[in-house]
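ugh ok fine here u go
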Amino acid sequence: MELNTIKDAFHRVAKKQKLSSNKSQEVIDQVGHEIEQALAKIQSAQDPPLPFDQKSILTELKLKLNSINALNQLEGSQKDLNITFSKYQKLLERALTPDISKGYRNVDFDFHIVNQIIASHFYHQGLFDLGDSIINEAGEPDATALRSQFLEMHQILEAMRVRNLQLALNWVSAYREKLVQNGSDLELKLHRQQFVEVLQNGTRADALRYARTYLAPFASLHKDEFQKLMGCLLFAGRLDSSPYSELTSPIHWEKLSEELTRQFCTLLGQSYSSPLSVAVAAGVEGLPTLLKLANVMAAKKQEWQAMKQLPVPVELGKEFQFHSIFVCPVSRDQGSEENPPMLMPCLHVLCKQSIMKLSKSSTRIFKCPYCPAEASVSQCRQLYF
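structure:
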């Protein structure tokens, strides 16, 4: 509800700003029109124009400009905009907490790892100067190992931006076996795009020669795709207006760049999205819950940062769910190697420590807290997610 209120207020500000801009342009056009008419009258008067004629034209212009009252019109529209914007600003101040330090938890960081993560992020984004600065200032020479590898990736991507696939084709050729093991068809996609480029910018003979050399090895496994590309040969030089015009869409270049980046990072043992960007994005999504918790706990004179576990769940999107997480329904503790989830004969699951407490340290049969069934520790089996 709070977010919808902010969005509605924003749309009101945007609408008011558009009205103010249109009004300002209308007034400026009116003033400009009157001045142009006055200039036209002066230029069409007798040559040389009489002083009396010029004075009368300028007097008439002054009266028209006074009747337009441009200053008051501009001030009025701007005043309405300022009022609406001021209300929006106050709404933001009430709805959003500017002091986000309340959501900070004092945790011991391994700054060596943090520095490497930050430098790796800049290399991942192609910002090599910033990455080098972090490395030099933090004294982390070991983090430069990824620099040359990400530099190669961005050189390939830069060439692809100008429709040059040669570096990309050389790379997939060098790592063909690993890409096939990963189930990637990136090499076929690159050769398909190169074939389309040859067909658009070269001759039909050039395209046919390229297909025989580079696309023929894929024909047996990708028959439909191969037939489609052979059909394109009939429209050499005019592929844009053919039934296969979809192949010329720029979206294919974007998808190729994304696929190459993903496969390149996979072979490097790196994630497609840098760990720093994922951590920041997840933090931004979870921050409102943490700030609300901090305010509630402060009102109760309790310190949430001293807790080993948050008393409320922090819901994140599916893009942040990288592995299964089990939380014991009895103790509310998250499963770990020391406290793994255990499956009871009744098919309910508790953490090991909860089962040990219920069974008095495995010495007796205990009742499941969720059904009438009874069990012993020896009957429980550890679950692996």
